[in-house]
Amino acid sequence: MLDMTIRIVRLGSDRLADEGLRIGTVRRPPRGVPKTDYSSKNIYDVWFPNLAPSEQLLKQYFPVADENQWRSFQRGFIAEMKEAGAKRDLDVLAALSHQTNFSIGCYCEDEAWCHRSILRRLLEQRGADVE
User: How is the chain split into domains, by residue range?
Assistant: First the structure.
Protein backbone atom coordinates (compact mmCIF):
# COMPACT_ATOMS: atom_id res chain seq x y z
CA MET A 1 0.00 0.00 0.00
CA LEU A 2 1.20 3.50 -0.80
CA ASP A 3 2.05 5.88 2.02
CA MET A 4 -0.39 8.74 2.28
CA THR A 5 0.58 12.08 3.71
CA ILE A 6 -0.16 15.71 4.41
CA ARG A 7 2.32 18.17 3.00
CA ILE A 8 2.69 21.58 4.60
CA VAL A 9 3.32 24.06 1.78
CA ARG A 10 3.66 27.70 0.89
CA LEU A 11 0.67 28.63 -1.24
CA GLY A 12 1.77 29.56 -4.74
CA SER A 13 4.76 27.20 -4.67
CA ASP A 14 5.20 24.51 -7.30
CA ARG A 15 3.18 21.37 -6.67
CA LEU A 16 4.67 17.93 -6.34
CA ALA A 17 3.28 15.28 -8.69
CA ASP A 18 1.51 13.35 -5.93
CA GLU A 19 0.59 16.28 -3.70
CA GLY A 20 -3.15 15.86 -4.09
CA LEU A 21 -5.70 18.46 -3.09
CA ARG A 22 -4.20 21.77 -1.91
CA ILE A 23 -6.10 23.37 0.98
CA GLY A 24 -5.62 27.04 1.80
CA THR A 25 -5.68 27.56 5.56
CA VAL A 26 -5.64 31.35 5.24
CA ARG A 27 -7.92 34.08 6.53
CA ARG A 28 -8.42 35.73 3.14
CA PRO A 29 -8.28 34.67 -0.51
CA PRO A 30 -5.43 36.15 -2.56
CA ARG A 31 -5.96 39.70 -3.77
CA GLY A 32 -6.12 40.43 -7.47
CA VAL A 33 -6.40 36.80 -8.55
CA PRO A 34 -9.67 35.55 -10.07
CA LYS A 35 -11.15 32.56 -8.19
CA THR A 36 -10.97 30.55 -11.38
CA ASP A 37 -7.14 30.89 -11.34
CA TYR A 38 -6.46 29.83 -7.73
CA SER A 39 -5.80 26.19 -8.60
CA SER A 40 -3.89 26.79 -11.84
CA LYS A 41 -1.61 29.28 -10.06
CA ASN A 42 -0.92 26.68 -7.33
CA ILE A 43 -2.54 28.84 -4.67
CA TYR A 44 -5.16 26.37 -3.46
CA ASP A 45 -7.96 24.12 -4.66
CA VAL A 46 -10.16 24.61 -1.59
CA TRP A 47 -10.26 27.53 0.82
CA PHE A 48 -10.46 26.40 4.46
CA PRO A 49 -10.19 29.47 6.71
CA ASN A 50 -11.32 27.38 9.72
CA LEU A 51 -7.65 26.67 10.44
CA ALA A 52 -6.38 30.20 9.84
CA PRO A 53 -5.52 32.61 12.64
CA SER A 54 -8.38 34.91 13.58
CA GLU A 55 -8.51 38.41 12.16
CA GLN A 56 -7.82 39.76 15.66
CA LEU A 57 -4.70 37.62 16.07
CA LEU A 58 -3.39 38.64 12.66
CA LYS A 59 -3.97 42.34 13.33
CA GLN A 60 -2.21 42.07 16.68
CA TYR A 61 0.89 40.12 15.61
CA PHE A 62 1.51 40.18 11.87
CA PRO A 63 4.00 40.71 10.51
CA VAL A 64 5.90 39.11 13.39
CA ALA A 65 8.77 41.37 14.41
CA ASP A 66 10.64 39.27 16.97
CA GLU A 67 10.76 36.08 19.01
CA ASN A 68 8.58 37.50 21.82
CA GLN A 69 5.83 38.41 19.37
CA TRP A 70 6.09 34.98 17.78
CA ARG A 71 5.69 33.25 21.15
CA SER A 72 2.64 35.40 21.94
CA PHE A 73 1.15 34.65 18.53
CA GLN A 74 1.74 30.91 19.03
CA ARG A 75 -0.05 30.96 22.40
CA GLY A 76 -3.01 32.78 20.87
CA PHE A 77 -3.25 30.53 17.83
CA ILE A 78 -2.93 27.33 19.87
CA ALA A 79 -5.76 28.60 22.09
CA GLU A 80 -7.90 29.14 18.98
CA MET A 81 -7.10 25.63 17.76
CA LYS A 82 -8.31 24.20 21.08
CA GLU A 83 -11.85 25.41 20.34
CA ALA A 84 -14.29 22.59 19.54
CA GLY A 85 -14.68 23.30 15.81
CA ALA A 86 -10.96 23.62 15.15
CA LYS A 87 -10.21 20.46 17.14
CA ARG A 88 -12.69 18.51 15.01
CA ASP A 89 -11.25 19.96 11.80
CA LEU A 90 -7.74 18.93 12.83
CA ASP A 91 -9.01 15.45 13.76
CA VAL A 92 -10.61 15.05 10.32
CA LEU A 93 -7.44 16.12 8.51
CA ALA A 94 -5.31 13.81 10.65
CA ALA A 95 -7.60 10.88 9.84
CA LEU A 96 -7.66 11.75 6.13
CA SER A 97 -3.85 11.74 6.06
CA HIS A 98 -4.00 7.95 6.37
CA GLN A 99 -6.30 7.68 3.32
CA THR A 100 -5.12 10.22 0.74
CA ASN A 101 -2.45 12.76 -0.13
CA PHE A 102 -3.25 16.42 0.32
CA SER A 103 -1.53 19.60 1.37
CA ILE A 104 -2.34 22.55 3.58
CA GLY A 105 -0.70 25.90 3.38
CA CYS A 106 -0.38 29.61 3.85
CA TYR A 107 1.21 32.51 1.97
CA CYS A 108 4.02 33.17 4.50
CA GLU A 109 7.51 32.79 3.09
CA ASP A 110 9.08 31.27 6.21
CA GLU A 111 7.23 28.31 7.73
CA ALA A 112 9.14 28.74 11.00
CA TRP A 113 7.29 32.04 11.61
CA CYS A 114 3.96 30.97 10.13
CA HIS A 115 0.87 29.34 11.63
CA ARG A 116 1.40 26.38 9.33
CA SER A 117 4.35 25.32 11.53
CA ILE A 118 1.90 25.16 14.44
CA LEU A 119 -0.64 23.25 12.33
CA ARG A 120 2.14 20.78 11.50
CA ARG A 121 2.75 20.10 15.22
CA LEU A 122 -0.96 19.89 16.05
CA LEU A 123 -1.55 17.40 13.24
CA GLU A 124 1.46 15.31 14.24
CA GLN A 125 0.15 15.23 17.82
CA ARG A 126 -3.06 13.71 16.41
CA GLY A 127 -1.13 10.97 14.65
CA ALA A 128 -1.34 12.46 11.17
CA ASP A 129 1.13 11.35 8.53
CA VAL A 130 2.89 14.66 7.85
CA GLU A 131 5.79 14.99 5.45
Answer: 6-125
